[in-house]
Amino acid sequence: MDIGTIQAYAYFFFVAFLVVVLYSYIYHLYSSQWKGKRDYEKYGNIALHDEITDQPIEKISKNDDLKVGGINE
Amino acid sequence: MENRPLEYDYTVAKWFMLTTVVLGIVGMLVGVILAWQMAFPAVNLMAGEGLAEYTNFSRLRPLHTDSVIFGFTLSGIWATWYYVGQRVLKVSMAESKFLMVLAKLHFFIYLLVVVAVVGSLLLGISTGKEYADFEWPIDIAVVVVWVIWGMSIFGLIGIRREKSLYISIWYYIATFLGIAMLYLFNNMEIPTYFASGGIGAWYHSVSMYSGTNDALVQWWYGHNAVAFGFTVPIVAMIYYFLPKESGQAVYSYKLSLLAFWGLMFVYLWAGGHHLIYSTVPDWMQTMGSVFSVVLILPSWGSAINMLLTMKGEWQQVASSPLIKFMILASTFYMFSTLEGPIQAIKSVNALAHFTDWIVGHVHDGVLGWVAFMIMAALFHMAPRVYKREIYSKSLMNTQFWIQTLGVVLYFTSMWIAGITQGMMWRAHDEFGNLAYSFIDTVTVLHPYYTIRAVGGTLYLVGMFLFAYNMYKTMTSSRRVEESELQNASPMGA
Prior knowledge:
The structure holds two protein chains of two kinds.
Chain A: H1 3-34, H2 45-48, E1 71-72
Chain B: E1 3-4, H1 11-39, H2 52-55, H3 57-89, H4 97-122, H5 136-158, H6 167-186, E2 189-191, H7 192-195, E3 205-207, H8 211-246, H9 253-267, H10 282-294, H11 296-309, H12 315-319, H13 321-344, H14 346-352, H15 356-386, H16 393-426, H17 438-475
Antiparallel strand pairs in B: 2-3
Helix pairs in contact in B: 1-3, 1-17, 3-4, 3-8, 3-15, 4-5, 5-6, 6-8, 6-9, 8-13, 8-15, 9-11, 10-13, 11-13, 13-15, 13-16, 15-16, 15-17, 16-17
């Protein structure tokens, strides 16, 4: 098999592999939502509720609550 | 010790807003001069024979491209980063003295770079590589600015309250990483003075690559500068500003994630389309062409997501000039991401390459998409950072229509000019003799070059209206309460 043929096969399988990865990612996103593992759509609210006094959509840790609302100078 | 409520700190965002407006006007003014020079070559001597060296087309052209890309657009990206970054991560710059110092350093070193770039390009000091014109000392300063910005991004992420990174943050990070990689590789150069033991100017350099390799790296960089400078960060902006201004959450967050990874993967392979029918390997040209066509999908994924975000709220397009700017921007994004792939198809490229159609494509992207989105972002930010309403809604509307007309005149004239040019260059008689000489094309293109210059001038007039509106907003507009700043931006009549 010459190098051109090998390249062609490699190219085809690589593209096929990437298509599988892409569709798996779509499946992962939707199945996580159905199974209730993660609600991706709620993250859209991060832009809407973005005042510093707003509650985070997902808090990073409980300790951080103490910082919100005041700064000492 | 005083205990006052925590607020976002927009100091550095404001500074970058200022450079966005100023460098936007500089870049577009130079562009308009160039357009008139193309139509009427006497404009090359506008300041007299003595100063022709500084006013001719070839000296000014890199100043136009670089001030729009690295002046206007980068400033816009950073102005919005120092605004959006804080808000979606729910952390104030005021909470970290270190990050504040870094951000200020970021701005001031950037200003020095701007001065060095303008000075060196006017003096004709250049590497001669398109969009990578800066000589090595400036490249080093650019890297310093970039590293500081990176520290600022990851520093702010490190102290955030919001656990999930909003989609815009993903795009800002991608901008940072993408440009860092591209800029470093394409600007690998050898300072000739030091390498030769003292010959020539100390600031001069030559590329580390040569021939076809140099061309490949240059266009891998060049096209991805469009990707990571003109697309990715502008998508970051629209994902934040359109939902926020309209009060509608992004239509599908899952689609935004999918489009992000699609764009990241596909874009990097498309640069080869600049080198179709050149000496680079044929498979690379084909790959560049194929990936360019595939690129339609992730680009339209984001653009359609934006249009669907307006579902049920289309009356806002009629009532708010700010929403108009953003909807037109995303429409132009769809349009130019369809036009680009068409031009990348080999048979179309045979006609389009080296013609004005390419110039038209770049400008419907940059004027229609990039600049409209950046101006919309600044309009949205202004009331929130200055605590004043936008000075004039009617001025915004006027600006919108003048600039839209300008863009339309620009790209339509360049379409006709480009296709005419391509057809005339390839036309031949039955014996294979070329039907036209080069000067025939110049004569026939003259009216379209004039129309383009008129279109550019209209756009520049719009930029002055924008600057005036921003200035009045900053200085004398009505003061607003925090409660007026929830979604739709307050505007004076």
